[in-house]
């Protein structure tokens, strides 16, 4: 394990995972920076051809076989719950609400009950440090097969952060970041509590859109605060019944939902394929 120096930096040597730590400070701040694009303020129009390794047949077969076995056991456990042999911990309808529209659908919760619950301890791990390249995780255990958890009081230090919503790095322990965030929060507050059509349009919104337009080399741009809503809510505003959408088979869920909500005709093609024979 790396030891912490007096100034809050980690000494440059390898930890137990064999990773260099000279560029990582305590609580996740790192010094290295990467350039985004060619630095010309105009996005590069060149696209690299993606290549994906095809999964071997035995891997695909074993994967589907594993899901099939777990699904069969799931139905068996549902039978045990139905006859009262096994206790069901999921939320259920109350007897006095049986005449109302059901809030919980047994079949829809099948995956949660029988598949996700088996590996639930791998997700939603509570942390006790800043979400930088590494962070500290609170250790927890379960006594009822991941239905509930209890903390042991121990902390797992320097766990590698493989996924985080800290896209811009504002959660890192960086004085420059924190100063900028504090200044803008004092000037604009933490939210506008209104749509931009009413009283929610600020000068920094327009400045951001002009910056994005300049970066992309276009006349103007429109920015949204949430990526999922950008696709799912705006596609129906651009196309509708009588339109045709050609959709990549591995498109994000937000694009798929927006296309379905639009009412347009959808034709799916194989990933990154330009051939007309790839249309489904």
From TrEMBL:
InterPro entries: Aminotransferase_I/II_large, AON_synthase_class-II, PyrdxlP-dep_Trfase, PyrdxlP-dep_Trfase_major, PyrdxlP-dep_Trfase_small. The keyword Metal-binding does not apply. Keywords: Acyltransferase, Membrane, Transferase, Transmembrane, Transmembrane helix. GO terms for molecular function: pyridoxal phosphate binding; serine C-palmitoyltransferase activity. Residues 158-274 form the Aminotransferase class I/classII large domain. It comes from the Eukaryota. One of its GO terms (biological process) is ceramide biosynthetic process. Gene3D superfamilies: Aspartate Aminotransferase, domain 1 (3.90.1150.10), Type I PLP-dependent aspartate aminotransferase-like (Major domain) (3.40.640.10). The keyword Transmembrane helix applies. Its cofactor is pyridoxal 5'-phosphate. Residues 1-22 are annotated as: Disordered. Pfam families: Aminotran_1_2. GO terms for cellular component: membrane; serine palmitoyltransferase complex. The chain crosses the membrane at residues 55-76. Belongs to the class-II pyridoxal-phosphate-dependent aminotransferase family. This is Serine palmitoyltransferase 3. It comes from Dissostichus eleginoides (Patagonian toothfish).
